[in-house]
Amino acid sequence: MKRDLSLFSHDFKVEIDGETIDYDTSHIYTGQLFGEEGTLCHGSVINGTFEGVIETSQGKFYIEPSKRYFKDQAVPFHSVMYHEDDIKYPHKYGSEGGCADSSVFERMKKVQMSAQKETEIHHHIEEQESSGPVILRKKRAAQAEKNTCQLYIQTDHLFYRRYGETREAVIAQISSHVKAIDTIYQSTDFSGIRNISFMVKRIRINTTADEKDPSNPFRFPNIGVEKFLELNSEQNHDDYCLAYVFTDRDFDDGVLGLAWVGAPSGSSGGICERNKLYSDGKKKSLNTGIITVQNYGSHVPPKVSHITFAHEVGHNFGSPHDSGSECTPGESKNIGFKENGNYIMYARATSGDKLNNNKFSICSVRNISQVLEKKRNSCFVESGQPICGNGLVEQGEECDCGYSDQCKDDCCYDANQPENMKCKLKPDKQCSPSQGPCCTNTCTFKQRSEKCREESDCAKMGTCNGNGALCPPSEPRENLTECNRATQVCIKGQCAGSICEKFGLEECTCGTTDGKDDKELCHVCCMEKMKPNTCASTGSDVWKAHFKGKTITLQPGSPCNEFKGYCDVFMRCRLVDADGPLARLKKAIFNPELYENIAEWIVAHWWAVLLMGIALIMLMAGFIKICSVHTPSSNPKLPPPKPLPGTLKRRRQPQATQQPPRHRPRENYQMGQIRR
Description:
Layout: E1 2-3, E2 8-16, E3 19-22, E4 28-31, E5 40-46, E6 49-56, E7 59-65, E8 79-83, H1 102-112, H2 120-129, H3 133-144, E9 148-155, H4 157-162, H5 167-186, E10 197-205, H6 225-233, E11 242-247, E12 257-259, E13 276-277, E14 283-284, E15 288-292, E16 294-295, E17 298-299, H7 302-316, H8 335-338, H9 362-375, E18 451-453, E19 462-463, E20 482-483, E21 488-491, E22 494-498, E23 506-508, E24 525-527, E25 536-537, H10 544-547, E26 559-560, E27 565-567, E28 573-575, H11 581-589, H12 592-604, H13 606-627, H14 644-657, H15 665-675
Helix pairs in contact: 5-7, 14-15
């Protein structure tokens, strides 16, 4: 582990309690698992406790403070650690995977198209002011490969309250989100544009004291998601690539994030967008977005929040939602494509554990590449470099025990020592505890077989080898060993395999389209390899020999019914509607099954249809007869149209005079017209 300086610019500032300060981010760390290439560790150390994520080849492990989940309870441990597959999703995350529905995006698009064009004089002044130095800067930008998007992050008082009302915890949450998207974007080749990264330039923390501050636009408790984004956009963010606000609000329809979609030309919005005047008379910065960590009253797991942030930033970078068979493989009928899942910009929520869930589709890459090619040179910058003194051993360091007021290590020179001494081992010292858990306080390696890591369901206890300070990888238990309360199996030392694999089967999705087996949609189901017709629940008679009739259910929040829904806490598959009310109405009207049912009913009840037809004809004839006297005509031989009061009087008059009505209609019509 080493201090992570790549996430914060050299001039990083924090605004809090009305003051702007230079902030020490030495509690933010990054690293990798020893001996395992391609792994990643990132998090923070606050009061001696680590919080963050550890990414391995078998998935991600999250570590969080126990008080976040055991409120007002005395527990004998300070942290909880869990695998990403253990995350329970009690609710669907919005109609479109945490995004707002299509009507919101349509309204946002109208705003983006309403930017007022700047005058030619303004352009001329800008050209004069930027002549010379700007041309040179542009040339240097192209040569220096500026590929870092600088961020301005604000948090409201609700977010501050959620994370214990400490600035360290808030900044740790921001760094974990930025690191998550930084990893995704850096690993993506945007048509030759590589190593896109993110760096926080400024953070504004609105504390609980700012809840009543009139200058705080986010002080009100009940703000809709569109208005919340608008409040962020009404500030001038010209100094930043993107500006986001993090909150802990429960927005309508389960929305987790919202952002303006970027475009190479034709509309405003997205990365590097300048503050402009719009048709509503307001100046806005549309290089903005918002993220919330609350959903239907529950805290959003870091994994979901990280993917949401990557998704919304993807909109800023110019990617709409994925569509078409090429970019939505999770909807494919081909098992080989389907099992890899959908990509980051898929319109609906994804499980997060599939191969494609943390990648951009080729559709997104094409769109983002066009925007980067057009805009990145206008606001992207170069990355920074880390330094000694963070308590983590970085490249070029022998050890790192922090600064003099922090260092309790007799083996290592602290960061306040001269340049040629700091972060180096003291003479005749074999190791430093800052290098790893297999180094003693007396600066020697621990003896062989001393414990350095606890055992788990899928790995044996880790022991030192006597030759180094790092704890060697634990010996994995045998593959297909049951784990996670016998609902999964171990694969290469990680509880990551389906219980079906223990018996040479493949996991599949239960249920049929006719709805007869909907109760099995949230069961763990198995099938023989490459034989979908053998798919059956673990509790069915088909697999009774393997599972003894025991039904194993999916975790609440797991995708079901071909990724069309999520299992709720009652193990019912709740469909996710990503199309909206108009699409539902269209499907209801043009559903072939509806017309088939109507045809069957007509055949079975032909006599009722005949009676209804006769009744309809009689009703229409009566309506025409009654209303004909009130209908104007161009025929001069016909009487003029009569009002309704005159008609009624005509019908009452013959009863009063007891004369045949056929001798008096014309006179009564005329009287009715005169009296009118």
